[in-house]
Amino acid sequence: MKKSLVFALALALVLTLVSAFAEPLQIEYWSVFTGGDGATMQQMVDAFNASQSEIFVNHTPMTADDLYQKIPLAVQTGSDVPDVCIVHIERIPNFVANDMLYAYDSDVLAQADVKQEDYIASAWARTDIDGEHYGIPLDVHSYVTYYNKDLFDKYDLNEFLSDGVLTFDEIKALGDKARANGYEGAIFDLGWMRAQLLCYYAQLDPELTLSKDGTNPCINNENMKKVLETMKDLYEGGYTTNKSDDYSSMFYGGELLVWSEGIWMKAAAVDAGVNFGMIPAVCFDPSCVKNWTSSHNFVQFADEERTEAEDLAVAKFIKYMGAVQSETWAVQAGQCPSYVSAWDNLDLNTLPQGFLADPANVDTLAIYSYRYWGLFDTAFSRIGWDFVDGTISIDDALAQVDAEIADAIAAQ
Predict the structure, then answer these.
(1) For residues 52 and 91, what is the distance between their CA atoms, to the nearest angstrom?
(2) 338 CB contacts (<8 Å, ≥6 apart)?
(3) pLDDT tens across 323-377, in order?
(4) Which of 54, 115, 358, 370 pairs with 98 at a CA distance of 20 to 30 A?
(5) What are the φ and ψ backbone dihedral angles of 69, each rounded to 5 degrees?
(6) In the chain, where does the domain assigned CATH 3.40.190.10 lie?
(7) Cα–Cα distance for residue pair 341/327, rounded to 1 Å
(8) Residue 164: left if φ>0, alpha if ψ -120 to 50, beta else—which one?
């Protein structure tokens, strides 16, 4: 045998052995999944790691507050920046404005077969900024309405669900009927104020206006006043929980008829043994239903040391999470995957949140976009439900929100 052939065979054998024993490329992945959805996400990551030997994803879950505090310092110092991270879609415009995110490389996405048309259009479009694309959506998750089926049967309330939605007037009517029939519990909850109120605001302002010029806040307006006045009216009429009530436990215990919550709480309701149904957010008018909606997005924060090989590994991971694990995310975590073909293998009628994935309901997904979302979130959430019992007037509450956001922007 010629020496050259012997050498070639020996080299091939060495390369094969090196490849066989080479360490996989490690990818650092941070997420905001710390509850039951965190266990599901870890299961999905483990499945990816077991599916191949070239890439190992190290998943670090943390609360959203912790993640949003740690990321700016990591990017600023260039130390311990994750290769890929899950953030809420509303945060992305400000990250982009502050040069904290890298846009996705279209060539890298193409190599991993990550394509725009595979994802829910409204979620994908929100992270198209100045001709670049910054987020790949894992899901959309909405604030909706749960109702106790057993209580609706017992107190003869199903007539109010004939069109698949509940209006604020129907909340009063079904509450009156239930009490006339002997029900002694609560009717409707004052829940997570920010998400709940933004469902109702979107019904009055389809443009989802938080700022007219992209900077200055304008939440102190007639549409938001009507939303707050509606909540105050329900409270004063005795149709809502009180501010100190543990409304979730009340629903689990059969002491609350209608519960406004996120689809991500489905597992908790199941664990509590509640026979529940899920419908869109309570509305002013059945012809205009809107559900406050966010989206968990995969992003890549700025890191000059990240290699093209790592970028490609991230893209392959994202593709796998959409194409292979979306059904797990829907069934076990109760989310609505944004990878559209995932729904081909899922029966919308067997999943409580399935109506959100129906193409006919795409316009009900109210995904807000405001550069200063983080400041808005803090200010808007701070007033809590104080306006319902007169601790602060509605006018003063909304003026306070606008002023706090404006001051925070000026202080940056």
Answers:
(1) 32
(2) 119, 120, 123, 124, 137, 138, 139, 140, 295, 322
(3) 999 999 999 988 999 999 988 888 888 889 989 988 888 889 999 999 999 999 9
(4) 115
(5) -85, -35
(6) 23-138+295-367, 143-292+385-410
(7) 10
(8) left
